[in-house]
Design brief:
Number of domains: 1
Shape: elongated
Largest sheet: 3 strands, antiparallel
Number of helices: 0
Structural class: mainly beta
Number of strands: 3
Strand order of the largest sheet: 1-2-3
Distance between the termini: 33 Å
Helix content: under 10%
Order of helices and strands: EEE
């Protein structure tokens, strides 16, 4: 089980920046995960 937050910023109706941060609630699953994704919709 985990919890997290995601933020997506859209620029120029095509470019997306996604920022994700998650925290595992079980010690066996790890601690904190963080990712940044850059992508185009088309």
């Amino acid at each position: 089980m985990s919890t997290g937050v995601s933020v997506m910023l859209v620029m120029n109706q095509n470019f997306v920046v996604a920022i994700d941060c998650g925290k595992a609630l079980n010690v066996q699953d790890g601690n904190i995960g963080f990712s940044i994704g850059l992508n185009y919709l088309f």
